[in-house]
Specification:
Distance between the termini: 48 Å
Radius of gyration: 16 Å
Strand content: 5-15%
Number of helices: 7
Largest sheet: 7 strands, mixed
Order of helices and strands: EEHEHHEHEHEHEH
Shape: globular
Number of strands: 7
Length: 206
């Protein structure tokens, strides 16, 4: 299979794609290590989902401002044959359901299910999942934010021309410590998603 035949999986809230009449700013989020806890050997079932403290509140708060939340996630556990595509979709839908039950909403999840060696065009740090979301939903990337816990997420944001925040949950602390001193001031830092969202809300109100 050629690179161009490898596509991301997209899950829309309510199975319905939203397309805004006017370009809309959005909040892009990585999933594991930002919304839910990283699992040492991949998140394999919906029963293993553990939400990071205050992440559900953070998503609700940004949704209350009318800003759509879009998850951009690499899930190579599928490509590694650790879990099936169907199981991965089930996990993502369970996360979306819990978020909605807590008063927030994930408008869409864009997921790369491929193995890193597949050479697909959707896997982060390539920006193509964010660019596809822009095309599908009519998003204003320059006014949007991307919150992640890895430098890979930050590079994705940079390539998509989206502002970014590196959180210290998940891989965040290790990723930050690996940076040399000249790069440690390159990224906006937040303790967790809740703090990042508070900073984003302040920015949107300015």
């Amino acid at each position: 299979m050629s690179k161009t035949e490898l596509h991301p999986i997209v899950i829309f809230e309510g199975e319905k794609q939203i397309e805004y009449e006017k370009p809309q700013k959005a909040l892009f989020l990585d999933r594991d290590g930002v919304i839910v806890e990283e699992q040492p050997s991949y998140l394999r079932t919906e029963h293993d989902i553990e939400f990071i403290s205050k992440s559900l509140d953070a998503i609700k708060n940004i949704c209350d401002m009318g800003v759509p939340v879009i998850v951009i996630t690499n899930q190579s556990a599928v490509g590694r044959n650790i879990i099936s595509v169907d199981q991965s979709i089930k996990i993502n839908k369970a996360i979306m359901k819990r978020v909605k039950n807590e008063g927030g909403e994930i408008a869409a999840i864009y997921m790369c299910p491929h193995h890193p060696d597949d050479g697909c065009l959707c896997r982060k740090p390539l920006p193509n999942m964010a660019l596809l979301a822009q095309e599908n939903m009519n998003l204003d990337l320059a006014s949007s934010y991307f919150v992640g816990d890895t430098i890979k997420d930050m590079k994705t944001a940079e390539r998509a021309k989206v502002r970014s925040i590196l959180v210290m949950t998940g891989h965040g602390v290790d990723e930050y410590e690996k940076l040399d001193s000249s790069n440690k001031n390159k990224y906006q830092i937040a303790h967790d998603l809740n703090e990042a969202v508070n900073e984003i809300i302040t920015s949107f109100r300015e």
